[in-house]
Write a structure and sequence with these properties.
314 residues, alpha/beta, Rossmann fold, 2 domains, seven-stranded parallel beta sheet
């Protein structure tokens, strides 16, 4: 019997696919229970980002062979340690790409047209429209850091607004740039030349703290900054300082250095900041897609087939 531990919400229809497959036994718990639960008998973990698969947990899971996160991010998994233990670790990068791209554009529009302030004004019976004068996107330059699955979708939407798109991603080939309608540029040129900069990178040693005082100093004066990737890619204190000085005109954030965002965060008090609580993947479609993609990987593993999106091969 192949024992699977699901440690978070999964689509009912996806879980049912596992439960009705001969030779599979499924147990489902809450993420908070993982460290008090006996994980030793389980062959596979199906998780989301609230479950931290670290060295300590892996050592407890004596029978573990497979870890699949139903998310596009994977910084909650110690992939190197999984690899050393011959445990296959996978993710589902396609699952929420469209949802994340659409949210990025929601933040862009909210910032460029001051939609949050406008909403608050009218609810307070204030019709003074002169306080919410925004900018068109037409003919502006969008800068994308990270032209992966999400970044490419963001670029294609920018083309519909008739924007000029610059992008930086040393790991993506020229064909992907061409298909996305993006022009390849160094990150300094992207920051210096763009009216709006949006981040779509994983959290790695290379990207951690990428947006800081030094990189922000390269940013086009008055640019809008969007982050729907990972909070630790950005130094929030540096961003606050540049917002207060006017060097950055507005910021739209779905992710934060510490989550939930502390009530004392200076970001909360600033009027030119739009905040959402890490909802890039929080759509019905992405949830269903990610759940079923994870199940597909489990079944491929059991059938001895090659399992896509293998993190141990990155």
């Amino acid at each position: 019997m192949f024992k699977i531990l699901i440690t978070d919400r999964f689509a009912v229809s996806a879980v049912e696919r596992l439960r009705t497959t001969e030779g599979i036994d499924v147990t489902q718990i809450e993420p908070s229970e993982i460290h008090i639960f006996d994980v030793s008998p389980f062959d596979a973990f199906l998780i989301r980002s609230r479950t931290i698969v670290d060295e300590k947990l892996i050592n407890k899971a004596k029978s573990l062979k497979l870890v699949i996160t139903s998310t596009s991010g994977f910084d909650h998994i110690n992939v190197a340690y999984c690899k050393s233990k011959k445990i296959l670790a996978c993710y589902t990068p396609e699952a929420n790409a469209q949802s994340a791209a659409e949210l990025a554009w929601g933040l862009v529009l909210a910032c460029s047209r001051k939609l949050i302030s406008a909403n608050e004004m009218i609810k307070n019976a204030n019709w003074d429209r002169h306080h919410v004068v925004g900018h068109e996107l037409y003919k502006k330059t969008l800068g994308i850091i990270g032209l992966g699955r999400v970044g490419q979708r963001v670029a294609k939407i920018a083309n519909a607004f008739n924007m000029h798109v610059l992008a930086n991603d040393p790991y993506v080939g020229d064909e992907a740039f061409s298909l996305a309608g993006a022009h390849r540029a160094g990150w300094e040129e992207v920051l210096r030349s763009s009216d709006i900069v949006t981040l779509h990178v994983p959290l790695t040693k290379e990207t951690k703290g990428f947006i800081n005082s030094s990189t922000l100093d390269c940013l086009n004066h008055g640019a809008i900054l969007i982050n729907t990737s990972r909070g630790q890619v950005m130094n929030e204190q540096a961003v606050v300082e540049f917002l207060k000085s006017g060097r950055v005109s507005a910021v739209g954030l779905d992710v934060f250095e510490k989550e939930p965002l502390p009530k004392t965060s200076a970001l909360i008090e600033l009027p030119n900041v739009v905040l959402t609580p890490h909802i890039g993947a929080n759509t019905i479609e992405a949830f269903e897609r990610g759940s079923h993609a994870a199940v597909d990987k489990v079944l491929a593993f059991l059938q001895g087939k090659s399992v896509e999106d293998n993190l141990c091969q990155r």
